[in-house]
UniProtKB/TrEMBL annotation:
Organism, as annotated: Sorghum bicolor (Sorghum)
Region span, Disordered: 81-100
Domain of life: Eukaryota
Family annotation (Pfam families): DUF707
Cited InterPro entries: DUF707
Protein name stated in the entry: Lysine ketoglutarate reductase trans-splicing related 1
Length: 402
């Protein structure tokens, strides 16, 4: 039997040839893969946009679509987007920027901007255009505690369905009001131990109450037997009042002569005070002045007053002397409506929400805070006006603040 040549068997030669072919094929495959790869654009996998059919697959794993199909769709989508992008670069759509839009909304088209809203409750179902059976034209707010429930019920009944009713609950008790049918339609806001001006600053922004022609911001201790809200508004319009209040019964809860009801006229805008109290007959407290217990603002006046209310000064003391800053001429557009009058019952309910300190009753601490706020507000207003004049190179007047 012949021996294999040079010790190599015939059976090993085909295996050697097969190995060479595999190596050659691998090299060719790598080269083709490289050439194939560089001929395609780079695709960022995070920017692939999947068609809805693929998204459906992700949501339904039993759809039968394979991973390869998913990638094929994504690859085709990416190529189409790049093609479309390259075509649109020559005629790029300008970005929206509208400087006259409200601050922060400059990138929105004006047609979609809704800068104002309202307090009208809406349904959770049906056609939005059919939600409202009526749109109240006026707003009345009361800052209330449960102890004045009967008094508020009587007051609310003086306001027709042309008014939105809004209650600010300083004692946190809201469910007890459900016994009144009107309460189920009212707007209730509850934060413990807060004043009406705290509420007003946070919940009555002018863009929120813009639908209302007049805004009543009232205390809870007002007797309204001789008051009719719609007749009151008729007189306000007739006499051109932008800021007003009903006259007060003369013999109870009266602090200023200006707010005292006069029985011989519909409205008064000036009065006489104690000697030395009025440096100018057109300035508070002899004119351009109403108190803050039962104030009524026109929509335009409220837009100014809201901006003047300070975040940290919650009692509003001093605000009534500054209301004249928001209308011109103030001594003609601020007044008291005598023909529709109320009684100030002077119930110290919110005052009792204070804290006893060093043997003082709760109301004493509240009153001390009120006086302190008045001084702070006067100083802030005077400093702000002085800074305004100096910035413009104008010598500030002696004082524009009362």
């Amino acid at each position: 039997m012949a021996k294999p040549l040079n010790g190599i068997s015939r059976s090993s030669m085909p295996r050697s040839n097969e190995g060479m072919r595999l190596i050659f094929s691998a090299v060719v495959g790598v080269m083709l893969g490289y050439l194939f790869g560089i001929s395609f654009p780079t695709v960022n996998i995070t920017k692939l946009h999947f068609p809805s059919s693929i998204i459906s697959y992700i949501e339904d794993r039993n759809s039968g679509i394979t991973t390869q199909t998913l990638l094929n769709h994504a690859w085709a989508s990416a190529n189409n987007r790049k093609k479309n992008s390259s075509e649109s670069n020559t005629d790029e759509i300008p970005k929206i920027y509208v400087p006259t839009n409200p601050k922060g909304a400059e990138r929105l088209p004006p047609g979609i901007v809704v800068s104002e809203t309202d307090l009208y409750p809406r349904r959770l179902w049906g056609d939005p255009s059919e939600d409202l059976t009526s749109e109240p034209r006026y707003l009345v707010t009361f800052t209330v505690g449960i102890g004045q429930k009967s008094n508020i019920d009587a007051a609310v009944k003086k306001f027709s369905d042309k008014f939105t009713i809004m209650l600010f609950h300083y004692d946190g008790r809201t469910t007890e009001w459900d016994e009144f049918e009107w309460s189920k339609r009212a707007i209730h806001v509850s934060v413990r131990k807060q004043t009406k001006w705290w509420y007003a600053k946070r919940f009555l922004h002018p863009d929120i109450v813009a639908r209302y022609e007049y805004i009543f911001i009232w205390d809870e201790d007002l007797g309204v037997e001789h008051f009719n809200a719609e007749k009151y508004i008729e007189l306000v319009r007739k006499h051109g009042l932008e800021i007003s209040q009903p006259g007060l019964q003369p013999d109870k809860g009266l602090t200023w002569q200006m707010t005292k009801r006069r029985g011989d006229q519909e409205v008064h805008k000036v009065t006489e005070e104690r000697p030395g109290w009025c440096t100018d007959p057109h300035l508070p407290p002899c004119a351009a002045f109403v108190e803050i217990m039962a104030t009524v603002f026109s929509r335009n006046a409220w837009r100014c007053v809201w901006h003047m209310i300070q975040n940290d000064l919650v009692h509003g003391w001093g605000l009534d002397f500054a209301l004249r800053k928001c209308v011109e001429p103030a001594h003609e557009k601020i007044g008291v409506v005598d023909a529709q009058w109320i009684v100030h019952q002077a119930v110290p309910s919110l005052g009792n929400q204070g804290k006893s300190d060093n043997g003082r009753a709760p109301w004493e601490g509240v009153r001390a805070r009120c006086r302190k706020e008045w001084g702070i507000f006067q100083t802030r207003l005077a400093d702000a006006e002085k800074a305004y004049y100096l910035e413009r190179g104008i010598t500030p007047p002696n004082s524009t603040v009362v």
